[in-house]
Design a protein that fits this description.
6 helices; mainly alpha
């Protein structure tokens, strides 16, 4: 008798989850997943449009899941790598901006204290160009990972 109650409760819970109303967050998360798959080349424009229409008009979570059926899900490791890469890009970009501002302040102080000097300007410009080149290469390399 207890087995049938447990079995009935399990079936009821699964059915309840499938027919539970989908919220805006569920629909937006699914639409975002579809955009990522389309951008990655896994969906054609027609398939993307059809599935997006189904997701946005879905009333239940089951309908949202059916619209996403057959699409691969990113692994936890791939998601973590992507998040770490994004954080590193932001940190490196911020460091580059701070470095550029410090270099500009140094140039300004040099001009104020010593006057306009072409050699000082040339040295600071070369330092800034080398740092910009290194930053650009690092950013492109990180974007490919």
């Amino acid at each position: 008798m207890a087995f049938w109650r447990l079995f009935g409760w399990l079936v009821f819970a699964l059915v309840q989850r499938r027919v539970a109303l989908a919220g805006d967050v569920d629909r937006e998360r699914a639409a975002s997943s579809l955009r990522e798959h389309y951008a990655g080349g896994y969906l054609t424009l027609d398939e993307f449009s059809r599935r997006t229409g189904r997701v946005l008009s879905a009333r239940s979570r089951g309908q949202v899941q059916r619209a996403l059926f057959g699409l691969s899900r990113p692994s936890v490791i791939a998601s973590a790598r992507s998040a770490v890469r994004d954080v590193v890009l932001v940190v490196v970009g911020g460091a580059y901006v701070v470095f550029s501002l410090v270099l500009a302040v140094c140039l300004g102080l040099t001009v104020l204290l010593q006057g306009v000097s072409s050699s000082a300007f040339l040295v600071i410009a070369v330092i800034w160009l080398v740092a910009t080149y290194v930053f650009g290469r690092a950013r492109r390399r990180l974007a490919r990972l």
